Amino acid sequence: MEDYQHIDAIEDYLEQRMSVSEREAFEQKLATDRALKGEFDTYRAALKVLEFKTLESPPLVRQKRLPLIPMWGRIAAIGLLLIAVVLWSLVQFNYSDEAIATSRYQEPLFTTSLRGEGAADQYQLALADYQEAQYEAAITKLQGLTADEAQYLEAHCFFHLNQSEQAIARFSALANNPDSPRSESAEWYLALSYLQSGNAATAINLLKAMAGHAGHANQQKAADLLQVLKSPWRKIVF
Question: Which of the listed CATH numbers 3.90.550.10, 1.20.1250.20, 3.40.50.300, 1.25.40.10 matches domain 98-236?
Fold first, then answer.
């Protein structure tokens, strides 16, 4: 190993496997050889870090250091553990039900006005709040408005607030109303809301129904999402 030419000698010295004359010769060289001194200091620093990380409490009596191979094996094990943690975090971030729901969510186009002077004013104020991500304020302004578009906007507010149960209730009412112009769109967002809530089984059933419904506005999106949900990575997400 080019960067650690003296590692065997350093280990022998620290493990007290040298004779008296060998120790004296090593110490003399250590005092004059800058490369050896650098390797020696680096090795000792690595040992201290490992002791700090792996021992529950500092030893009262100086412990014998582990030999070179087990020590570097421990370093490799720590490295592998860190890699595993990073990979798990990436999988969790990308393949959890909530992460998938968020990644598949797209803002819809909302109607800009409602019929009725009072209702129209309240709806427009709520829509302005929504566009500024003031979802709670928008929900307050939408209270008492029963038009489908108002309920649709309110459902999206709850989705953004991660209040899945409220979003599910409103999207479900619209999805189950075949006369509503928002029926098919609400069905898609209903599936995403179930995913967000962690109820993947119900979401998958809804997606299968949409994917098998010829002419459904979200048929292809549902089929694509079903493929994502079949990913083996999801099996290791907690």
Answer: 1.25.40.10
